[in-house]
Amino acid sequence: MSKKHKTTNFRSLPRTASSSEIRSSASELGEDPIVVERMMEFISRIEREIESLELSPEMVSNCAVTLLATSLLHCPEDRREAAVASIFTALWDHLGLKPH
């Protein structure tokens, strides 16, 4: 969570991204292209499940918050606050909003 990323994020990559797009995005993210491919597949699987289960946006948000909170339990306690701030900033970035 401590890595700072630029304008590229997993959401901005098309699901049909070519190998060169994945390599380029991985470079911008400071990640291995294999990790980017795995994350894209993870996101696609979740999107398919959301559609299959016909979950409402509220239910999806609740599930996402639960998953984030659970994952943060594995983050060292002294880094949790920074991790939460990073998540908050990433959400604003994904939505094209500016934090207050």
Overall outline: globular
Question: What's the total count of β strands?
Answer: 0
Average predicted confidence as pLDDT: 84
Radius of gyration: 15 Å
The main sheet comes to: none
Strand content: under 5%
Report how far apart the termini are.
22 Å
Binned, the helix content reads 55-70%
Number of self-contained structural domains: 2
Q: In sequence order, what are the helices and strands, one letter per element?
A: HHHH
Oligomeric composition of the shown chains:
single chain
Assign the structural class, choosing from mainly alpha, mainly beta, alpha/beta, alpha+beta, or little secondary structure.
mainly alpha
Descriptive tags:
100 residues; mainly alpha; 2 domains; 0% strand; disordered N terminus
Secondary-structure map:
Layout (H helix, E strand, L loop, with lengths): L18 H11 L3 H21 L3 H16 L4 H19 L5
Helix pairs in contact: 1-2
Descriptive notes:
- The protein is an all-alpha fold and 100 residues long.
- It has 2 domains: 1-54, no CATH class; 57-100, no CATH class.
- 67% of the residues lie in helices and 0% in strands.
- The chain has 4 helices and no strands.
- The protein has helices at residues 19-29, 33-53, 57-72, 77-95.
- The protein is globular.
- The chain starts with 18 loop residues before the first helix and ends in a 5-residue tail after the last helix.
- Mean pLDDT is 84; it is low at 1-8.
